[in-house]
Structure to design on (413 residues):
């Protein structure tokens, strides 16, 4: 999507880190930024999912805007 | 994949060449046949290919499996040259829906690639459709399925724990290639039911999970056999994929009973859909569907399939036991394609 000009923030969970690294190396973009959330996600309650989202929201925004998030 | 020229290796003897293939990381854990150039050329020549053709492009991994890559993996898998057109057709069939190829090469759910052969090619290549249908003992079944897996591992880096994140994996990832026993089937062959001529040699390709055996030894009527199959279909282990496509392998002794009771293919398909339902609420309670339960979920009956054509009925396996098998598949639409003549 980024190749099409759409700002994109990819989110993975930490158990997929080695896979994400292998994939970005394969795609020739080893420094590609993505957000690493804590695993798991699918077995969380709605409130726990919201808390997870809050934890990573700043980093998602930073990747989408290309700017550091103001403290 | 890099070209074979970049990986050209000289070894003292064949055993050393086999060990070199292990060192290069080209195997599924078992020894492979070293992909000598002349064997690769023989494969390509049998299929009338140059080595340059793109058979399966996985752009989201920046990888393409060319005919030369496929031929090298076919040699390594132990294929005879005349098997190669089956592999070529299967890879091109997967190419028709690339997104699912990535899924097949990575998913935590551990799917494999099922190939079912129909038509004269079964006899020509010696593809087993009878005793030990899914098991070892037949070069064509073993090596054609293995060639697909080696293409995924060597071509798409589908290594366990790396880009293949299958949680449990499956023995079906070593090989998953069978033929239908058309000769003793009570019904028209699978490929004829899917619009091909009986004289066509075809491969049916699915991104599929391991077969689940369904015994029914004691109830000697067709309805009871089908109820046993429904019971397997509606297990929580499988029901989370509802509605889906299925391959149902009816074993010979079950087929005789079903035939005696007058069950047509369409009757069986309709019966399985009608009797495999399970309430959404039950599936939520089993963690098979995402909750929480919604009002009406107790009454919302989910079915294994919606369209009868999404249940592919085929005949295979040995005599002596009263078994059939069910195979659930992913969102990849099962495709049947004619195998190129050369």
């Amino acid at each position: 999507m980024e190749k099409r000009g759409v700002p994109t923030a990819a989110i993975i969970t930490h158990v997929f880190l080695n896979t994400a690294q292998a994939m970005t190396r394969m795609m020739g973009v080893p420094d590609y930024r993505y957000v690493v959330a804590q695993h798991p996600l699918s077995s969380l309650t709605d409130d726990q999912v919201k808390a997870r989202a809050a934890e990573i929201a700043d980093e998602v925004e930073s990747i989408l805007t290309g700017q550091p998030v103001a403290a | 994949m890099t070209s074979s020229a970049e990986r050209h290796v000289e070894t003292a003897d064949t055993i050393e060449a086999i060990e070199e293939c292990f060192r290069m990381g080209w195997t599924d854990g078992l020894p492979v046949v070293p992909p000598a150039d002349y064997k690769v050329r023989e494969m390509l020549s049998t299929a009338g290919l140059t080595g340059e053709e793109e058979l399966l492009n996985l752009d989201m991994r920046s990888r393409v499996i060319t005919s030369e890559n496929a031929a090298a993996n076919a040699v390594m898998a132990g294929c005879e040259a005349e098997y190669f057109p089956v592999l070529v057709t299967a890879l091109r069939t997967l190419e028709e829906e690339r997104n699912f190829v990535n899924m097949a090469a990575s998913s935590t759910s551990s799917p494999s690639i099922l190939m079912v052969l129909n038509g004269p090619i079964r006899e020509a290549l010696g593809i087993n459709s009878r005793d030990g249908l899914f098991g070892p003992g037949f070069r064509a079944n073993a090596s054609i399925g293995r060639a697909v897996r080696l293409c995924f591992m060597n071509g798409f880096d589908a290594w366990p724990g790396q880009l293949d994140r299958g949680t449990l994996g499956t023995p079906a990832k070593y090989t998953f290639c069978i033929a239908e026993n058309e000769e003793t089937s009570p019904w028209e062959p699978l490929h004829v039911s899917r619009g091909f001529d009986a004289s066509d040699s075809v491969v049916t390709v699915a991104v599929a999970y391991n077969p689940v055996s369904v015994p029914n030894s004691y109830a000697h009527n067709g309805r009871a056999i089908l109820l046993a199959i429904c019971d397997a279909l509606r297990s929580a282990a499988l029901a989370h994929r509802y509605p889906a496509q299925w391959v149902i392998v009816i074993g010979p002794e079950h087929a005789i009973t079903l035939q005696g009771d007058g069950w047509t293919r369409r009757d069986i398909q309709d019966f399985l859909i009608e009797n495999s339902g399970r309430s959404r609420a039950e599936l939520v309670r089993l963690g098979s569907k995402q909750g929480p339960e919604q009002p009406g979920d107790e009454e919302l009956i989910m079915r294994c399939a919606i369209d009868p054509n999404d249940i592919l009925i085929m005949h295979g396996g040995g005599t002596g036991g009263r078994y059939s098998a069910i195979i659930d598949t992913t969102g990849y639409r099962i495709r049947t394609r004619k195998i190129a003549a050369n």
The longest strand of chain B covers residues 112-118. Residues 4-338 of chain B form one domain. Chain B has a mean pLDDT of 94. Residues 139-156 of chain B form the longest helix (18 residues).
